[in-house]
Write a structure and sequence with these properties.
The longest helix has 31 residues. The protein has 10 helices and 2 strands; from the N terminus they run αααααβαααβαα. Strands 1-2 form a two-stranded antiparallel ribbon. It is mainly alpha-helical. The protein has a single domain, classed as Up-down Bundle (Four Helix Bundle (Hemerythrin (Met), subunit A)), CATH 1.20.120.1760.
Length: 269
Amino acid sequence: MVDPFDDDKDVEDTPRQKRLKRFKTIPLKFLLPNLITLLALCLGITAIRFGMEGRYELAVSAIIVATVLDALDGRVARLLKGASRFGAELDSLADFINFGVAPAVLIYMWALHNLHNLGWVVALSLSVAMALRLARFNVALDDPDKPSWSNKFFTGVPAPAGAALVMLPMYLGFLGFIPDIKAAAPVILVFTGVISFLVISKIPTFSGKGFGQRIDRDLVMPALAGSVLFAVVLISFPWELLTASVIAYFVLLPIGWRSYRRHVKADES
């Protein structure tokens, strides 16, 4: 039944009115990935606070959890088909804080402050390298000429991995392998510079984007058991597991480079 008092029933909406109506409600699938990203951002900023209070183990733990959430938000967005340009921009900004600013501040307050201005310059170079790496990644997303197999690789060490790698001295310190942080500061400075170079380098590294999207039916139970075991070991022996993971990542770097070269040669032939 037509409402006689409604004068707009027979009037066609203007393009602007149609756009406004379209944005009155937003599906939950677009909000959930962004909420995960914001939670990761809160953890990254909180890590800086923990570092200022001298609670370095909590600070590093916050960044590690932020790394896990960063891996989840993109997968959740793809699973729910809720990816958006807004979410991509928010994720990039959060990554810079979580993996560019927070680790640089922590490593400076923990060790590099002993080297005064030189330590600050190297910590600053880590943040700059992360910013450049993220900007290059965003630009590469719009490249229409990339071969399909290139999605298996990153150019340089990705930001989350770079943050996990640069905190290796802190893991070792928590384990008691670095009793004198001041004496080890020059070595930590060189190590931080090396990670900064790897972040902005063009060394191909495995992306792992396709990992876990499909799994054989017979491997479901072993995968679940392995995931639970990994979580238990991470909670029980966090610094030992993180140290082993960093060493494994360094071992994978030449393997990833050789795999990339094989793909390039196959295209050339």
